[in-house]
Amino acid sequence: IALIPANAAATVYNKTKGEVQVLNINTLGVLQVVSADTGISSLSDLAGHTVLMTGKGTTPEYTFAALLEKAGIADQVTLEFKSEATELAAALVANPHAIAVLPEPYATSVIAKESSLERRIDLSREWKDVMGEDMATGVTVVRTQFAKDHPQAVAEFMEAQAASVSAANSNPDQAAVYVVEAGIIENASIAAHAIPGCNLVCIESPGLQPALSSYLNALFAQNPGSIGGALPADDFYYAK
Fold first, then answer.
1. Whole-structure pTM over 0.85, yes or no?
2. What is the CA radius of gyration of the chain?
3. How far is it between the farthest Cα atoms of the chain?
4. Host H or E run for residue 215
C-alpha cells in the first residue's frame, strides 16, 4: 500500500495492466494563488498578468491550464516557471505584487514572512466550482492481488488511515509536532497553520470514482502521457 500522486497511480495502473487499485483519495488540491495584489480575487482577474509557478510539464501546470481554459483566458496569462517552490517564495518576498501559484505548506510559510501577501485564489475551490468535482491530487493505492488475498488487512489499514486523517484535521497543533519530527518542515507553527490548507481527506467509494475520474480526464485532455497514455478502467477503483 502506498500514498502517491493520482496521475502516478494511473500511470502505474497502465504500465502494469491493472495490477494496482486506488483505495481512496487522500489529498485534494493544495495550490493557492498568492499575491499582495488586491485586484486579484478570481481567475478572470489573472488576464494580462504573468503568473509564477513550478511544475512545468507536470500536474500543477496541467491543472492550472485546465482552469484557465475553462475561464476562457488561457491565451491571456503568461506562465513563468521556476524550478522549486522556494524560488517562488523568494520572488514573492522580493516583489509582493508578483503573482504565484504555491502549494501548501509554502503558501503559509511565505505569507508568514511577508504580511502584505495573501491567498487570493484557492484553486481547489475553483476546480470544484468549474469541474463539479473535487480536485483529487493524492491517492492511496494497493496491489490488486494483495487486496484480493488480504481484504481484512486492507480494511484495517483504511480504517486506521481515516482515523489518522481525522486526528490531523481536528488537532493540527498536535499533528504539526509529528510533521516537525518527521523532518517535513522545521516550524511547528507554520505546519499547524498549513494543515487545513493541505486538504487531507479519505474519500472512498462511492465518491472515489466520480472525483478521481474527473481529475484524470482533465489531465488526459492536457497531456495523455501525464496519466500513462490512457484513462483507467473501472477496476482501477477499489470497492469494498
1. yes
2. 18
3. 56
4. helix 208-222
User: pLDDT grade, residue 185 (50/70/90)?
Assistant: confident
119 vs 57: CA distance, rounded Å: 24
> What does the alpha-carbon distance between residue 179 and residue 187 come to, in Å, rounded to a whole number?
9
Cell of 111: 505569507
**Residue that has been written with the C-alpha cell 497543533 in this structure:** 173
CA atoms within 13 A on the CB side of 81: 10
Average pLDDT score, the chain: 95
Q: Give the contacts of 213 (CB within 8 A, at least 6 positions apart).
A: 231, 237
Rounded to whole angstroms, how far apart are CA atoms 155 and 157? 5
For the beta carbon of residue 135, count every other beta carbon within 10 angstroms. Answer: 28
Predicted pLDDT at 141: 98
C-alpha closest to that of 222 among 6, 107, 62, 23? 62
DSSP 237: B
Helix/strand/coil percent split, the chain, to 5 = 50, 20, 30
Whether 131 and 29 have beta carbons less than 8 Å apart is answered as: no
- Cell triple for residue 185? 518542515
Contact 1, 157 (CB under 8 A): yes
